[in-house]
Design a protein that fits this description.
Keywords: Glycosyltransferase, NAD, Nucleotidyltransferase, Transferase. There is one protein chain. Helix 15 crosses helix 16, helix 16 packs antiparallel against helix 17 and helix 17 packs across helix 19. The longest helix is centred in the first third of the chain and has 22 residues. The strands form 9 sheets. A 6-stranded antiparallel β-barrel has the order 13-14-17-16-15-19. Strands 7-8-9-10-11 form a 5-stranded antiparallel beta sheet, sandwiched between helices. It is globular. The chain is an alpha+beta fold.
């Protein structure tokens, strides 16, 4: 109930901490909440109240009223409370208090407006303006004053002089035009007028235009059709660039949020929700929210957080304006401004030459960005009026695309040479701690639910690396508390198989002597009895301990209750640590001995206890490796973790932290580190051992990208590494070597094998040749072989993997694409040795499994490819198991033709079949590519130079910007005021304007949409035959129809669907209206006072393979036998072959159906349609049964085939519905 929810939320808020808010309690009135706000300055706290105006509709349908109970309020507080009340409708009390706290802190923040420069940390830097002696030509917008006119809302507008308002309005449009002409899409969400107190604007760019590879899009959880959106909110009136530069950074009431949307702009509700609470949904991506809510709201834009929105929002809100002020004052670039900001140098004079050269040096990667992002509005317009929104958009998108170069916490540049496909943190321990604790990393729960076998792969790699002491880095700074190391599970195996001996000083260490605490242990009751009660309590609730009884395996428990000390209650479920020798043990291995296997002693027995009280950071490297092996051995399998999360997700947000008795915080911390530190993109393209068909159907497995002719004991994954621009560098290398390439075979493929213990580091740091593990008889570089059997030897099969793994990996190797220039390799025989890292792109990861199921039930299909007449390939799946006989798989991509002289072969001694979809970049360079896109060779010395970004050269004309299918006309029209004249080309600062769209015409019909009375209609519930796929298809059809309806004038369209009347997508109510006045039907309707013809469309279970049933509900038409026409039967059904199996086509659109039915009714041959009665009081409805009978009679009369499911349309009689 809403009221109970409201009371519960207020009670919860009383215990929750909000910045500078205290004393939260319910007031005397229903819906009243009282609280105190403590200003930053000294003085008594402010007594404030929030009143829920409709508790019965809380939170969605409730509005808030905010007011102060204190007198003598600081300036701006009262108006701020009134302003907040105008856009907090639908907020929960948590969101409301967070928003009040944030807004009042900004209103009451101290800061001098006279100081033109202020760094956010409080340090002042005096900037000397070179033109300080000259009179400034910047526009003074005048002082704002609140509107006091009676009847006008003073909370949302300002009053300015007519001249200042006109000037500010022009400046707003100038600034936003600059954004649109720079190549971004613009969404006007709220305000953005001179008298608007609060304004919200969205600036977006489609993901497909960011220059990211397919692998980067997958790694970042982006779809190419989606938009990356920057939201900017002005909370205290619009402020142009020059005003923002003058004010201290902290005093600017400008906030930013960045996210992803299915449309170019979110809705105003989504936008305000994004600003309501910075931490709300901070680490939830679009897919996380889909998992929670089941499906997207079709009416929304689907705005959600990016995978790094938390980090990016914090960075932009905290530092962007300060960096902007540094750039403007010192003339440096973004990188130089960040260096200055970090070093916090003192006062800088007017001699810019005094700054070191490094401050003016920009990153080389910036030049590889797409033009719209690489353009620098500030540098290109040093003397012109600058657009603050455009500067913010370029900065935000630039940082997003370069996010892998920076630490996600401190935002400092990560060391040179570091490359990753996903962003991470620097090597500062504090950054890693904040990265994990503040939720900047990926959601572990989301990864386990959506990609369980990829997580299994990552954990297996880490486990094997730790067992063999091959980890390069450790989870330092996460405050992990682990048990003391008392035994060794790792060994010197890391130094076998040709791996060099450990360096001097790295001799095997012995653990420090640890004396476990001796206790009595009641196995049946899971209780510890401590013998000595004189000291401090040895354990606390929530601690983890290891219990060991002589002769039995140690068991890990969580402490549940210490209130009866010296008796301490442990968790009922103990965790038995698995070791490498316990691979593929049954599930019972995850729990300690049960009474069914080992009856517990009657009395407590002697045992020892070790507590998780050792700081992981204090251990040496051997101790760290031992702890990781031990903790991973206590984890449930990924399959068990996923089952727990899926079950939990049915009633609440899935969180592993709630599985307290099974997963220790230390083990969960290691798991989070493993997933978060993976900086490669790994996508499953194969069916894995133990994977059910139901999982295959639901998972995002790209079976169409699987390689063929590969031994069935290998499981395949798509594999990509390097920075987001690594693919672009590979393309650049292809172009630079184009003269030396065979146009038919510009690249070749080869295998790279490496011991299993190395892959944890490879997927994080990439392929390199920093270490010599197998000798380098053929030179320095990355070694490859074209025979997989050769790489199998270097992969060293037989190394045991993580005991909880479903994959049970024994070896791994990658299949890489290499630029086909063997003459430039270090060596091409017998091994391919490539010294240029940019010439190598990892494409696939092959892992060999030891599961008994691999090679039988898991390999459920064979690929049979044949060349059809259309030159496309068709995928035929031969199912081996009956339970998946109905499964359909996506078509396999055509396979690549390899260079005959350099052909990669599998262990089956067959050429590996590589789908063309895996090589989208180099495919365009192949002379026989199926897309017929053959690049023109660029002659040496004639390479086109990169066009310098300029303010005019890169602009789009207004005609070009207005051609977007999705963009709303209002957003384009906003950029030009009613009185603003377009400037001719070559004159003034305005861009060339080819066409100015005219305002939409006024309605030319008397029809009033939405006036139909729903209570008079035969509304139906969803039919019993409804299926998810059919429902999805009909939803799509409905949205298409509504989109057409929205974009077409009513009098031109002639039909109308009221979306609110479609509560069941299997039944649509449609109105035909606005007929030509000369039609007899239109004349009858006018006399009878009928504004529309009401029709019903019902869809069957076989739609779109069978036609919908279309009938008229009202008014009744004159029957054909009585002189009527219009193809309307005597029962109201339509007499049209199109609506029968004889004339229906599955590709028919509903829009086309509506058009043809309307034309049939308007048809004058053989007779025009007429109403049965022109008397207003004699209008009657048709019944469903008579319409169905008339339809059947018409079909039989004309010999048309009746749909097989037609009788199920009898919804009113309970048949089918």
């Amino acid at each position: 109930m809403p009221r109970k929810t409201f009371i519960a939320d207020v009670t919860a808020c009383e215990k929750k901490s909000f910045p500078r808010i205290s004393g939260i309690q319910r007031g005397g009135d229903d819906g009243d909440v009282n609280f105190l706000f403590s200003p930053l300055s000294s003085g008594p706290p402010l007594e404030l109240s929030a009143l829920a105006l409709d508790v019965s509709g809380y939170p969605k349908n409730n509005n808030w009223m905010l007011f102060a109970r204190s007198s003598d309020l600081p300036k701006g507080v009262e108006s701020a409370l009134e302003d907040l009340a105008s856009y907090t409708a639908g907020f929960t009390i948590f969101e409301l208090l967070s928003t009040v706290s944030e807004r009042l802190q900004k209103i009451l923040a101290t800061g001098s407006h006279a100081d033109p420069f202020e760094i956010d940390d409080g340090s002042d830097v005096e900037m000397i303006d070179e033109n300080s002696g000259e009179e400034s030509d910047e526009q003074d917008w005048g002082d704002y004053s609140e509107e006091e006119e009676p009847g006008r809302n003073s909370t949302t507008t300002y009053r300015l002089s007519v001249q200042n308002a006109a000037q500010l309005n022009r400046r707003i449009k100038e600034d936003l035009r600059a954004v649109r002409f720079a190549g971004f899409k613009l969404g006007i969400l709220s305000g953005l007028k001179a008298d608007s107190r609060t304004s919200v604007v969205s600036i977006s760019i489609q993901a497909s235009k960011l220059g990211l590879s397919e692998e980067a899009l997958q790694a970042w959880d982006l779809e190419s059709h989606q938009y990356v959106v920057l939201l900017i909110r002005y909370s205290d009136g619009y402020k142009p660039f020059d005003t923002i530069i003058k004010e201290p950074a902290k005093s600017n009431d400008v906030a930013f949020r960045i996210g992803v949307s299915n449309k170019y702009k979110p809705t105003i509700i989504e936008s305000l929700a994004a600003f309501a609470d910075l931490s709300k949904n901070a680490n939830k991506t679009a897919n996380d929210q889909k998992l929670e809510h089941g499906q997207d709201d079709e009416s929304s834009a689907g705005f959600s957080s990016l995978f790094i929105s938390s980090s990016l929002n914090e960075f932009i809100n905290d530092q962007f304006i300060s960096l902007l002020k540094i750039r403007h004052g010192m003339g440096v670039g973004w990188d130089g401004a960040k260096r200055f900001f970090n070093l916090k140098q003192g006062r800088i004079g007017d001699e810019k030459a005094e700054l070191p050269y490094e401050y003016f040096e920009e990153s080389k990667t910036a030049s590889a960005l797409p033009d719209v992002i690489a353009a620098d509005h500030i540098a290109e317009n040093p003397s012109a009026s600058l657009s603050f929104p455009l500067a913010a958009a370029q900065f935000s998108m630039r940082y997003l695309l370069r996010c892998t170069e920076f630490c996600l916490v401190c935002h400092d540049k990560i060391e040179e040479g570091f490359e990753a496909l996903k962003p991470y943190v620097c090597n500062k321990p504090l950054c890693l701690y904040q990265y994990m604790s503040l939720g900047f990393g990926p959601s572990v729960e989301h990864e386990i639910i959506t990609q369980p076998y990829v997580v299994d792969l990552l954990v297996s790699f880490c486990y094997t690396a730790a067992v063999n002491r091959r980890l390069r880095e450790y989870p330092i700074g996460m405050s992990l508390h682990v048990p003391p190391v008392t035994t060794f599970q790792t060994s010197a195996n890391a130094y076998r198989f040709g791996i060099p001996n450990p360096p001097t000083g790295a001799a095997v260490q012995t653990p420090s002597p640890i004396t476990p605490m001796e206790v009595r242990y009641d196995v049946g009751r899971h209780e510890i009895i401590f013998p000595d009660t004189s000291g401090l309590l040895p354990v606390y609730k929530g601690d983890w301990v290891i219990m060991t009884i002589d002769g039995q395996s140690p068991v890990h428990h969580r402490v549940e209750d210490t209130s009866l000390y010296p008796t301490v209650k442990l968790s009922d479920v103990g965790v038995l640590q698995m070791s490498a020798g316990m691979v593929n043990l049954p599930t019972a291995a995850f729990v300690p001995d049960t009474p069914a296997t080992t009856p517990p002693p009657v009395m407590p027995v002697a045992a020892t206890m070790l507590k998780y009280d050792q700081s992981f950071d204090d251990l040496d490297e051997v101790g760290k490796a031992e702890s990781i092996v031990m903790l991973l051995g206590t984890l449930p399998s990924i399959k068990e973790l996923r089952s727990y999360l899926v079950h939990q997700g049915r009633s609440s947000e899935p969180k592993l932290t709630t599985w307290k008795e099974r997963v220790s915080p230390a083990a969960l911390g290691i798991l989070r580190w493993i997933i978060a530190s993976n900086r490669s993109c790994i996508v499953q393209v194969d069916v894995c051992p133990g994977q059910s068909q139901a999982e295959v159907a639901k998972a995002k497995i790209r079976l169409d990208q699987k390689c063929s002719n590969v031994n069935e004991h290998y499981v395949q994954f798509r594999f990509a590494q390097g920075a987001p621009d690594k693919e672009q560098r590979f393309l650049t290398a292809l172009k630079s070597n184009q003269d030396n390439l065979d146009p038919k075979y510009p690249t070749l493929f080869a295998w790279h094998g490496s011991p299993l213990q190395n892959w944890h580091s490879i997927i994080r740091h990439g392929l390199d040749f920093k270490e010599t593990l197998h000798g380098r008889a053929y030179g320095h570089g990355v070694y490859h072989a074209q025979d997989q059997n050769t790489s199998v030897g270097y992969a060293q099969p037989g190394v045991s993997s993580w005991p909880g793994s479903s994959l049970a990996i024994t070896s791994a190797m990658s299949l890489n694409e290499i630029i086909n220039c063997p003459q430039q390799f270090v060596s091409s025989n017998p091994y391919i040795v490539v010294q240029h890292i940019d010439w190598i792109q990892c494409r696939y990861l092959f892992v060999q499994t030891a599961s008994d199921q691999a090679g039988s039930a898991q390999k459920r299909y064979e690929h049979n490819l044949f060349n059809a007449s259309s030159a496309l390939y068709v995928f035929v799946s031969k199912i081996h198991l009956a339970d998946i006989s109905s499964t359909t798989y996506p078509p396999v991509s055509p396979e690549l033709e390899q260079d005959p002289q350099h052909t990669a072969r599998t262990t089956l001694q067959k050429p590996v079949g590589i789908p063309q979809s895996a090589i989208s970049v180099s495919r365009a360079f192949r002379a026989n590519n199926t897309s017929d896109v053959i690049p023109k060779k660029i002659a040496k010395g004639n390479n086109p130079k990169k066009v310098k970004h300029s303010n005019t050269g890169s602009r789009l004309s207004l005609l070009e910007t207005a051609m977007s299918d999705e963009e709303e006309l209002e957003d384009i029209m906003f950029l030009f005021s009613d009185t603003e004249e377009p400037v001719e080309e070559g004159k003034g600062k305005a861009p060339t304007i080819a066409v100015i769209p005219s305002a939409p015409p006024k309605s030319q019909t008397s029809f009033v949409p939405g006036s139909l009375d729903q209570s008079s209609l035969p509304m139906l519930d969803a039919p019993s035959y409804a299926t998810p796929s059919a429902t999805l298809r009909l939803n799509r059809e409905l949205q298409t129809i509504l989109k057409v309806q929205k974009s077409t004038p009513l009098h031109e369209l002639g039909w109308y669907i009221h979306a609110e009347l479609v509560s069941n997508v299997y039944q649509w109510i449609v109105e035909f209206h606005s007929f030509e006045a000369t039609l007899p039907l239109a004349k009858d309707m006018q006399v009878a006072g009928v504004s529309s013809i009401v029709l019903e469309i019902r869809f069957g279970k076989d739609f779109p393979h069978s036609p919908p049933f279309v009938r008229i509900i009202r008014p009744r038409f004159l029957p054909f036998m009585s002189g009527g026409g219009g193809h309307v039967t005597g029962g109201g059904a339509m007499c049209m072959e199109l609506l029968t199996n004889s004339g229906w086509s599955a590709v028919s659109s509903i829009e086309g159906v509506l058009l043809q039915v309307r034309m049939a009714i308007m048809n004058l041959e053989p007779k025009p349609a007429r109403l049965e009665s022109s008397n207003k009081s004699h209008q009657r409805d048709y019944g469903t049964a008579e319409a169905m009978d008339a339809y059947i009679r018409a079909c039989r009369a004309h010999g048309w085939e009746i749909p097989k499911d037609f009788q199920e349309f009898a919804g009113g009689s309970g048949l089918g519905y």
